[in-house]
Amino acid sequence: MSSQLITLHINGQTRQLRVEDSEALIDTLRERCELTGSHQGCDTAQCGACTVVVDGTAIKSCNRLTLQAAGAAVLTIEGLASEGMPLHLIQQAFSRHHALQCGYCTPGFVMRALAMVNEAVPAEPQAVRHALAGNLCRCTGYEGIVNALCEVLPVLRGAGLMSVQPNDTAQRYASPSVSELAPMGAMEPAASAASFQVKRPATLKRAIEWLAQHPDARPLAGGQSLLPAIRLGLAAPSHLFDLQDINELHELRVDERSHLIIGAMVSHARVATNPRVRAGWPMLAALAGGIADQQVRAAGTLGGSLANHDPAACWPAGVLASGATIITTHREITADAFFTGLFGTALASDELIVSVRFPPAVAGRYLKFEQPASRFALVGVAVVRFAQWVRVAITGLGSGVYRWSKAEALLSERFDSAALKGLTLDPRVASDDLHAPAEYRAHIAGVLLQRAVADLQRD
Ligand SMILES: Cc1cc2nc3c(=O)[nH]c(=O)nc-3n(C[C@H](O)[C@H](O)[C@H](O)COP(=O)(O)OP(=O)(O)OC[C@H]3O[C@@H](n4cnc5c(N)ncnc54)[C@H](O)[C@@H]3O)c2cc1C
Ligand code: FES
Ligand code: FES
């Protein structure tokens, strides 16, 4: 097992730790540091019990390698109130509103709530429920949790009580010193079945050199798909090259031809909240804001989603309908040529997505019928209207993103939901699986397209 010496600032204490390359942050916290307040529920980024705050952002620590967090400030539930200290205001509100029963999920909810103070989440029930979508509670129900947060969020904002920086944490909340805890019997995390080395290239040149040298290596973006795949034994890379330090991959700008450029490492959360995207490409902002939950949106990236080409992912439909161009380290690829079937793309193994270029459009809409737990698209339809033509792309059909050319021809002639009357999608382009039969998927695609076009007509 390969290991590395790193620095983490945990609850205000700076700590040097030797961790395995394949070690998840939750394991480092619980087993190496004995901070067992962060809980392991699903271990697949669904339940949010393991939520901690890293550099101000709530993330699911079961789905983050410790090496991805090297040098960062990590705040866990233990950093809020240690023994003998008054509970944090969020914890007090949970207690007042009976927002916990067994308490297993509670640290995750509290840490998620802490990060919400910095986000502009309004203190009203619907917004709070939406913001908590990545945290599941199996026994209490959500009413008390939502009420507690509606009460406490304005108080915290007013008092400026959000604390995520190491020094802040130490000043505001006395926390147990990690070095004090260690002698009490901190254990080595159980050896992970996965064995790979992690490196952080500083430049694109270095990243593609390393990829060329190691044919079984994979680039690592947020890890939101790759890490669960490794854990489930669906991927066994020799190396992961973490792209977070490569500046070019983080750009988000409008170029001189009024095209929107989004770097491969730009997170869904950043796209969703960027004022220029919201003003000029509102469909893309809404699509990104509807992916998964805030913890996944903060970590998951445009480049990772496109390279993965999950058949239920949202971005492939938005990118294909937008007629976007994928800019890689080697060339430019049109969206039409990029997606090559189930989990398939035109990328070579040593080729990286650098950014995606979106042309200006008149208007667009993305609607999905989502899986309630993950918010992946059972079916998702993106329709984009340009001056002379219309493009329609569907995700969720089962074998990768699909362009619906008959619908495009009808809508390019007359942009009216009435023009779609009698049009049905051939179920043979869809698949059956445990979630839905092909006929159902094809039907839903037609319904969503009708609704999207009707919406755009009303705008
Ligand atoms: C609970 C949960 C719910 C989700 N719900 C949704 C949803 O509703 N809709 C949706 O669309 N998605 C959803 N996702 C997926 C999420 O959007 C991820 O962002 C996406 O899968 C990619 O993850 P990532 O960016 O972290 O990439 P990684 O997981 O790091 O990488 C994914 C793949 O892309 C490759 N890769 C990464 N970057 C590059 C690059 N620059 N160039 C070439 N290859 C690269 C990696 O090697 C890997 O093969 C969900 C995920 C989770 C865990
Ligand atoms: S343990 Fe469930 S999201 Fe991490
Ligand atoms: S309080 Fe028991 S799972 Fe939420």
Notes on the protein architecture:
Helix 2 (89-96) packs antiparallel against helix 5 and helix 3 packs parallel to helix 5. The protein has helices at residues 25-32, 89-96, 106-118, 125-131, 143-159, 166-172, 178-181, 204-213, 226-231, 268-273, 275-280, 282-289, 294-299, 302-308, 315-321, 335-338, 405-413, 438-458; strands spanning 3-10, 13-20, 51-54, 57-60, 73-75, 197-199, 218-220, 239-242, 252-254, 260-263, 325-328, 332-334, 353-358, 363-370, 377-385, 390-395, 402-403. It is 34% helix and 18% strand. The N and C termini lie far apart (57 Å). It has two domains: 1-181, Ubiquitin-like (UB roll), CATH 3.10.20.30; 247-458, Uridine Diphospho-n-acetylenolpyruvylglucosamine Reductase, domain 3 (2-Layer Sandwich), CATH 3.30.465. The chain has 18 helices and 17 strands. The radius of gyration is 23 Å and the shape is globular. With 459 residues, it is an alpha+beta fold. It has a five-stranded mixed sheet with strand order 2-1-5-3-4. A five-stranded antiparallel sheet has the order 9-10-13-11-12. The protein binds flavin-adenine dinucleotide (FAD) and FE2/S2 (inorganic) cluster (2 copies). Flavin-adenine dinucleotide (FAD) binds next to strand 7, helix 13 and helix 14. Residues 100-106, 137-140 line the site of one FE2/S2 (inorganic) cluster.
Structure in a nutshell:
The protein is built from 18 helices and 17 strands. α2 runs antiparallel to α5 and α3 (106-118) packs parallel to α5 (143-159).
- Overall domain count: 2
- Ends: how far apart? 57 Å
Q: Assign the CATH topology of the largest domain.
A: Uridine Diphospho-n-acetylenolpyruvylglucosamine Reductase, domain 3
Find the count of extended strands (DSSP E, 2+ residues).
17
Beta-strand proportion: 15-25%
The CATH architecture of the largest domain would be 2-Layer Sandwich
Rounded to the nearest angstrom, the radius of gyration is 23 Å
Name the overall outline. globular
Structural class: alpha+beta
The biggest beta sheet is recorded as:
5 strands, mixed
Mean pLDDT: 92
Bound molecules: flavin-adenine dinucleotide, FE2/S2 (inorganic) cluster
Provide a count of the helices.
18
Low-pLDDT regions: 163-185
CATH class of the largest domain: Alpha Beta
**Which range best describes the helical content: under 10%, 10-25%, 25-40%, 40-55%, 55-70% or over 70%?**
25-40%
In order across it, which strands form the biggest sheet?
2-1-5-3-4
